[in-house]
Design brief:
The chain is an alpha+beta fold. The chain contains 3 helices and 3 strands; from the N terminus they run H-E-H-E-E-H. It has a 3-stranded mixed β-sheet, covered by helices on one side. The relative contact order is 0.20.
């Protein structure tokens, strides 16, 4: 887990670089971006236009490379520049849904 109480310190950049590094070592990796207010994982990987789908098994992550899939709250937002005004219970619910419903397979998130 990579976290900080401050914005703009490079958490997502570090997570993305770690994911790519592990992928190059043949690990199956899937960063899970819980940043509600400024999710940048979709931008870092060039996936801003991607939207999540749901199937009978759950929510499949977005595939970047054969061994790299990503999941981000950013895939749920209509406009990444619009402010997110969610109450605490909504934020907790989204995180819980990601933990329960994202199809992980043999990928480590």
């Amino acid at each position: 887990m990579i976290m900080s109480g401050k914005r703009g310190v490079g958490k997502s950049t570090i997570a993305a670089n770690l994911a790519i590094g592990l992928t190059l070592r043949r690990y199956k990796v899937g960063p899970l971006d819980y940043d509600i207010h400024s999710p940048t994982i979709p931008t870092i990987f060039g996936l801003e236009s991607k939207k999540l789908t749901v199937n009978k098994e759950g929510i499949p992550p977005i595939q970047v490379l054969p061994n790299l899939s990503v999941m981000s709250i950013g895939f749920l937002l209509e406009n990444k520049d619009s402010p997110v005004v969610w109450k605490g219970s909504t934020k907790i619910g989204i995180i819980q849904q990601f933990l329960e419903d994202v199809i992980r397979g043999n990928v480590t998130f």
